C-alpha cells in the first residue's frame, strides 16, 4: 500500500523517546519530513541522529518545545511551515500526569494536568489548522491512553483528561470534514515504554513486590500475553495519518493486544 507520505510535513510532539520517537521513525521510514519536539535539547539531538541513521532519511529536525507554553507551540509549527511550507500531519503527544487517586491532588495538580494533557492538544491543533484548511487536507492524531475506553486504577488525572481528548477529536471531526481534515484518537495499552515502566514501579512499591512481578502479572492479563512494542503502536498511527486512510475520522481506537474488554 502506498501511504503517500513521501515529502509530507509531519510534526510529532513529545518525540525524544517512547511512542513519539517510534512514531517519528516510522514516518521517516516512509520518506516524510519529520519535525520532532520535546523539552530536552540533548535528547532531541540524539534522537534526530538515531532516526536519520536508522531510516536513511535526512529530512528530520527538532525544535525544543514545552507544550504547556503557547509561544513554544507557535514556534514549533512556524518552524515546520518555514521548513516545508505547511503542516500535513500533526501527531499530538504528551507525557502522562502523575499516578494517584482523587485525594492525592490539589487544584494546582489538576491545572497542570489539564494544560499538559488537554489544553496543549487544543493549542497545537489551533496552530496547524490554518495551513491544513488552506490546502484542504490534513491528518491529526491525538495520542491518549487505553483509559479512553476503560478507566485505569490510580490514574484519575489521566482518566479525566484523556476522555476530554476524545470529546475534542469527535467534535472536530464534524467541524473539519468539509476541509478534508481527518482526526482520530489512539490509546496505547501496555506498551513497553518508560512511562509504563514507571507506573509498574509505582504499583510494585505499593504492593511490596518487584517491578518484574507486576509486569509479568500485567502481561498475563493481556490476551497476547505480552506488552506491545512502540513500533507496533507507531505503525497504526502512521496508517491513520497517511494518504492510505481516506475515510476513518472521529474514532477513538486502542492498541492494546486485546486487553480492554469494553465495547
Automatic annotation (TrEMBL):
Domain of life: Bacteria
Pfam families to which the protein is assigned, alphabetical: adh_short_C2
PANTHER family: 3-OXOACYL-(ACYL-CARRIER-PROTEIN) REDUCTASE (PTHR42879), NADPH-DEPENDENT REDUCTASE BACG (PTHR42879:SF6)
Family of the protein in this entry: Belongs to the short-chain dehydrogenases/reductases (SDR) family.
Protein name: SDR family oxidoreductase
Species, as recorded: Halobacillus campisalis
